[in-house]
Amino acid sequence: MVPPRPALSFDHLGIVLAVLIGVALFAAPFATYRATRIASGEARLLIEALPVAMASALVLVALGLAAGAVLVRDPLGRLGSAVIGLAVLLPSLGLSAGFLTPADNSFARVSPSAGFWLLSLSFSLLAVDALARMRLGPFGRLVALAVGVSALALLLFSGIWDDLSIIKEYRTRADSFWREARQHLMLAVGSMALACLIGVPLGIASHRLRTLRTAVLQGLGIVQTIPSIALFGLLIAPLGALAASVPLAAALGIRGIGAAPAFIALLLYALLPIVANTIAGLNQVPAVVADAARGMGMSPWQRLVQVELPLALPVILAGIRIVLVQNLGLATVAALIGGGGFGTFVFQGIGQTAIDLVLLGAIPTVVLSFVASIILDALVDFSKGALA
Amino acid sequence: MITIDHLTKRYGSTLVVDDISFEVEEGTLTVVVGTSGAGKSTLLRMINRLVEPTGGRVLIDGEDTRTIPEDALRHRIGYVIQGYGLFPHRNVADNIATVPRLLRWDRKRIAQRVEELLDLFQLDPAEFAHKFPHELSGGQQQRVGVARALAARPALLLMDEPFGALDAVIRSKAQDDLLAIQRRLGTTIVLVTHDMNEAFHLGDRIAVMDQARLLQYAAPAELLMHPADDFVERLVGTAERPFRLLSLTKVQEVLEAGRAEGEPITASESLHEALSRLLWTGRAALPVADAAGAIIGQVSVGSILRHGRPLP
Fold this sequence. Notes:
Largest sheet of chain B: 6 strands, mixed
Strand order of the largest sheet of chain B: 6-7-8-3-9-10
Helix content of chain B: 25-40%
Number of strands of chain A: 3
CATH topology of the largest domain in chain A: MetI-like fold
Strand content of chain B: 15-25%
Distance between the termini of chain A: 33 Å
Oligomer: heterodimer
């Protein structure tokens, strides 16, 4: 028996989103205007931030979507309305920047404000919720990610956001942006890769030897409790001494400050999740499967490569996912000891009280972590699918 | 021929297998039976050296197993355990191909062998070859487990409670299938169980173990009629004894002349089956048919009862 449905049913998340959208439209500033990049901001409501016709259009669309979020149950319909919302909202931010910036004024800056953030948050939540309800498989999620990233790239390259302050910050330091991006990825991904090369064998050995396991897990657990800045600081002295006494180390660029201590600190943080998950993954290989493998005459190496590691892979990949997301965030702090990365812009921006420069460092970090977690989640699912 | 020669296993001060010796003839099915903790599994696992003996040795056709490298020895011995231990990340065909791959058979020969085994175990290759273990029923998993153990044509098959995870109906079918396959391939089998019915149903010879020791090693009828001691007698089950004895004898052997009325029974059925039909139908005798269905005589209650007790 299907229970009779009420004539009109409200979606709970939809109600919350509708309230958010209402607040964003009428009570929160859409954009912030600054006379110069470090001047204090003046809030602009949506109705002041865009030409009247466009502002009213955006309000109508947003209200329509709020109603849709409350009433429409079909995930595809919800996803469609979220996409329409973002497709109207994101370009209009760029138009607003052009509208608010006085002609021939290269000092004035326009940045998104609370109203814009709330609207984009609401529409993104609506999209994510719709995607979750569609229960996409790992392949579908990767496709959705590719579509989202392409849309973002299209917005950036179309030039429609060029009047925004954050893009102006980017233009004045485009070279250093990509250099720091490479450095950020090198620190985060490189230390993760090295952590896998060390951590997986260490995990395998710890799984076999109980005494090693206790020592390794406790040691890495203690490392994990040291705050990142403190760990960077702790590494300055030994690495400085190393560089001073071993010319080769200095020639390789190892110094007390810079990328070397940051890389090593990230590596140390990365080891615990990888080692612990390798051990956990190997532990959950059913004893009867391991016994059968041995009874059929598989050598220890064959058992490891053909049976134990494939069965442990989803858990190991889950550890790698934790490490990558954690590293992408932590690498930001590396800038404090001269290690470079997106943190450079964050700390410069804090120093100059230029909030848009902070965002220039923070937003790419968030996007990278988000993309990395979706890709690795999909990989975990793929590896589980292979095990079914 | 497998020779178990003064085999002993000791963990610290605990004796798990205490100085056991017996021989298993080529092509026979020997059941090792006993209560749990009697040391049956350890005994079995010493044959393929999953457990290294503390003392004694195992000879396969006169060759001491200690002189063969462990893995090479296990490639030659099939091994089936309770729960089967199928590889969850490999499909049925790949599971069955495990040992042939370890032996580096060529691809074509492996594919051929897998298909042959799937046919032998009544699993349609087109349907089952690419299924994963979790997609199979318990009975199908069991068959794949045995097929995998037989893949490289081992002369010896070790089975540790291979039917323990099956329900009663599927279990008795799986037991009959195993017997049929064993007759057909002539594989020597050593099977461990705690189930006395299974032991009498399957065993050419039965080894009874208790507290690390071998109490008796004999043919099933011998075990019934001349139990070595009280423990064996209790294990065999005093009340079950005559019926077990009847189930060991075929109708063929007590065939008498005459044409009784009623539904005929096949000559290859056991006396146990014949008696139960006689009791159920209230008759004194049943007609007996050969495999082709022709009536070749009859079997009567009197002749059956004479077989339900030890012969003088």
